[in-house]
Amino acid sequence: MLRRSALVVALAALTLGGSACHFGRTSRPAQVTPVSVALGDSLFNTGACQRCHGKGGVGAQNAPALDGKKWLQLKTGSYEEIVKIITDGVPATAIKDKAHRFAMRGRGGPMNLTDAQVQAVAAYVWTLSHK
Predict the structure, then answer these.
(1) Alpha-carbon span 33 to 47, nearest angstrom
(2) Residue 73: HSE in the Cβ half-sphere, 13 Å Cα cutoff
(3) What pTM, to 2 d.p., does this model score?
(4) Mean of the per-residue pLDDT values for the chain?
(5) Is 70 left (phi over 0), alpha (psi -120 to 50) or beta?
(6) Strand pairing partners for 105?
């Protein structure tokens, strides 16, 4: 019986794309693949994102950490919300933590990310906040 239960759990994990569903956490979105995360990591950590959010999204003087412990501009930290905020940016007047006074420009500002690149960066950020 134990062996059969282990098989059912393994099959369920494969069906979910290899991600386990943790209590209080959502399963990994289909768009969060190893390839998209790797591309997002590269774009984030070599581009404008890391200048404000710090390498690895640990937070810095101009922007908060992206670990999901406390979302300042998002409600749930869902993949869709992350895509939207990267696409649209955050005007300075909408920044909730006034210690971070600079606007977040949409699409990485000077990077002018394509839709596919925005989705890749969102996949990377999603992994930072769902460890």
Answers:
(1) 21
(2) 23
(3) 0.80
(4) 84
(5) beta
(6) 89
Q: Does the pLDDT at position 52 exceed 90?
A: yes
**Position with higher pLDDT, 125 vs 101:** 125
The type of residue at 58 is V
| Cβ 61 vs Cβ 86: under 8 Å | no
Residue 48, Cβ neighbours under 10 Å: how many?
A: 18
Whole-angstrom distance, CA of residue 36 vs CA of residue 68: 19
- At 17-51, the pLDDT tens digits run 433 333 345 699 999 999 999 999 999 999 999 99
Buried b (16+ CB within 10 A) or exposed e, 22-42: eeeeebbbeebeeebbebbbe
User: What pLDDT, on a 0 to 100 scale, did the predictor assign at position 18?
Assistant: 39
Quote the CA–CA distance of 107 and 112 in Å, as a whole number: 5
Output the CA–CA distances (angstroms, integers) from residue 57 to 30, 64, 92, in the order listed: 22, 8, 20
CA angle 119, 123, 124 (to 5 degrees): 120
Could you give phi then psi for residue 69, rounded to 5 degrees?
-65, -35
